[in-house]
Specification:
4-stranded antiparallel beta sheet, about 45% helix, 5-stranded mixed beta sheet, about 650 residues, alpha+beta
Length: about 650
């Protein structure tokens, strides 16, 4: 079998393609329990098992059982393309072996998600989201789902489950088991190659350059998985050991100091949130006219772990009245944290789940077990080891800057540049000043609530919120909401015209797409004719999806510079280095954000860096009060335990 690489690939100077799949034992203990295996068998570090590849031009299939000290058996030069499904797993294997990562990558998981993004079946269900759930425990948008979507033969999910379980159990493997695992591994390679061939021939992977840009980021995602976040293991274990006592004492402590009177206490001392008492508190605070309500006109006290702020009315009300924040955090701990168990590996690092391309806008979200997917107080457990430091490096006013660049609004671009160069403190506060809502000599430090309100309102408007919605969400008078939004429209009229045109274009074209090719399919309808793509979704798309493009480019640059990425959070990264080198590394990460934005927007965004070095722990102001409360309760619980044991 001899065949040339596709012409679109060859024009980029690529002369060979390898489709690749790797098997390994992860170090995350939580990954073992769902297969009925004890978490204690997890290795200290990712343990490579085997690797298979298929060479495009010859059709040759190659397999290697992992051996200590071996060099990479595959070329990773500039003229070779690697294709994989969920490629960060393969590069985690490479990193564990100490091999150089490939230069050219296409991740079929990303390309499949892009293809079906926004598509629904006749029942209104997202294609790929929940298909084949019973057959394959990994379900959503998996290789099995993708193959079935394209009408390709694929192995049953139950077979995958049994092989994975055996791999996780670890050595020794019999000759028969090795053969079965390699056959399984090769089948995934063959399925991935068939999927690529079909997606390419159908036009679903048409722009190879865009696909390669997305694939580049998988190197950075693998580096993130390799490093993890250094944490204070001793304190995490203490919290886990005494968590029941802490939870039981939390509501009592908060009620004693804050006097909410919203909890009902059972005979065993456990606390229950009482809805009727909460309604009474809302009315005592005089918030009955601003508190969000459900469709049937009941107060909504929802505060889910997932979703945007529009899905979290309790959080919005706590922002309006900070007195409620301790109550919100307490209720969240009581309802969502029955136990406290971070996925900390034997190396003392937390590696929560990470979900690239998980949102419609392709934003990547820290998932289950990630410290940055939890309440802000958990971040106080981040603690670099001796001689090390971490830096949290995030884009500055990312949505505003991206909106300015994409719309070419001269006022927005000038205001962002003035902020970066220090002529103004904050674009949102400056808008308030221009509207005569603060004196000319006012500074942000003395007017934080005003700055926060104008930032919230400006971003809400950029994402489609009406003055009526802003008034309801923030509790400000409708007239004040109109003043803010009128000021934004007058100052940034070209942005406003551009974003409205983009919505019209999306409906006309049936899609909306970033400059880097991330696409959302538009105007899908259910069987009863309901349109599933809302204008608010379209208005939100460009700032969020372009930010994701920039993030992927930035983490690619960071990985290629050898920066140790510990976590990726939307428009921010946490990086690590020695205490002496941390400042230079943080600056290098900032440069990567600047370069990535310039590459994609033609307009440079800036980034801030917050540093923490050993022996200090990372501090987050939003979580300071709750962290202090929990540490006090932990000390009480330990004291009581010692007294009982004496």
């Amino acid at each position: 079998m001899n065949r040339p690489v596709p012409q679109e690939v060859a024009t980029l100077g690529i002369g060979e393609i390898y489709t690749i799949d790797a098997e390994f034992r992860p170090s995350d203990p939580s990954g073992y329990e769902k297969y009925g295996l004890p978490a204690t068998i997890a290795p200290n570090h990712l343990e490579p098992v085997c690797l298979s590849a298929k060479r495009w031009t010859t059709g040759e299939t190659l397999s290697w059982w992992s051996r200590t000290g071996e060099s990479c058996p595959l070329p990773v030069n500039e003229d070779t393309l690697y294709i994989a499904f969920q490629a960060p797993a393969e590069w985690s294997y490479f990193l564990a072996k100490g091999w150089e990562l490939p230069a050219n990558i296409i991740d079929l998981y990303a390309e499949y998600r892009r293809t079906v993004n926004g598509l629904h079946d006749g029942r209104g269900e997202q294609i790929g989201h929940g298909e084949h759930k019973d057959a394959d425990g990994r379900t959503k948008y998996g290789l099995l789902s993708a193959c079935i979507h394209y009408g390709l033969q694929a192995r049953a999910g139950t077979e995958k489950q049994s092989i994975i379980a055996r791999i996780l159990q670890g050595a020794p493997f019999s000759a028969e088991e090795q053969d079965a695992i390699l056959q399984y591994n090769v089948k995934d390679v063959e399925d991935a190659e068939s999927l690529f061939t079909t997606m390419h021939s159908s036009g679903d992977i048409r722009n190879i350059g865009h696909a390669l840009m997305r694939g580049d980021a998988t190197r950075g995602f693998a580096v993130r998985d390799l490093n993890g976040i250094p944490v204070d293991v001793a304190t995490a274990r203490r919290l886990s050991t005494h968590w029941d006592s802490i939870r039981s004492g939390l509501a009592h402590d908060v009620e004693a100091t804050r006097h909410y009177d919203v909890f009902r206490f059972d005979d065993d001392g456990s606390a229950q949130f009482d809805r009727n008492k909460m309604i009474a508190l809302v009315e005592r605070l005089g918030m009955q006219d601003v508190w969000p309500r459900t469709d049937d006109n009941h107060y909504s006290f929802a505060d889910p772990e997932r979703g945007g702020d529009e899905d979290k009315p309790f959080k919005r009300m706590a922002m309006l009245n900070p007195y409620l924040e301790d109550l919100r955090q307490t209720r969240k701990i009581l309802e969502h944290f029955n136990c406290f168990d971070l996925p900390i590996g034997k190396d003392g690092r937390c590696r929560g789940k990470y979900a690239p391309w998980v949102q419609l806008t392709s934003r990547s979200s820290p998932g289950k077990g990630s410290i940055f997917a939890m309440p802000a107080w958990v971040r106080w457990l981040i603690k670099p080891p001796e001689g090390r430091g971490v830096a949290y490096v995030d884009l500055k006013s990312a949505e505003f800057g991206i909106g300015a660049a994409l719309s070419h609004d001269p006022n927005m671009m000038q205001d962002y540049t003035d902020m970066v160069e220090g002529r103004i403190e904050c674009v949102y506060f400056e808008l308030a000043r221009r509207s005569r809502q603060v004196p000319d000599d006012a500074v942000v430090a003395d007017n934080k609530p005003i700055r926060k309100l104008w930032k919230t309102a400006s971003l809400a408007m950029m994402y489609g919120q009406s003055p009526e919605g802003l008034s309801a969400a923030t509790g400000i008078p409708l007239s004040s909401a109109r003043v803010i939004q009128d000021a934004f429209k007058r100052r940034y009229s070209l942005f406003w015209s551009w974003i409205r045109r983009e919505i019209v274009h999306a409906h006309c074209l049936g899609k909306i797409e970033t400059v880097c090719g991330w696409r959302l399919n538009v105007n899908q309808m259910t069987f009863d004719g309901e349109t599933l793509t809302k204008d608010g979704t379209l208005q939100n798309f460009h700032p969020q999806a372009t930010c994701a493009d920039i993030m992927r480019r930035a983490v690619t640059l960071m990985a290629d510079r050898g920066i140790a990425i510990c976590e990726i959070v939307h428009d921010a990264v946490m990086v690590e280095d020695s205490t002496e080198a941390l400042e230079a590394t943080a600056q290098s990460a900032r440069d990567c954000w600047r370069q990535a934005s310039l590459d994609i927007l033609g307009f440079e965004l800036d980034a801030d860096a917050k540093r923490c070095t050993s022996p200090n722990r990372y501090e987050d102001e939003d979580g300071r009060a709750m962290w202090g409360t929990l540490m006090g309760l932990l000390e009480k619980a330990e004291k009581a335990h010692r007294a009982a044991a004496a």
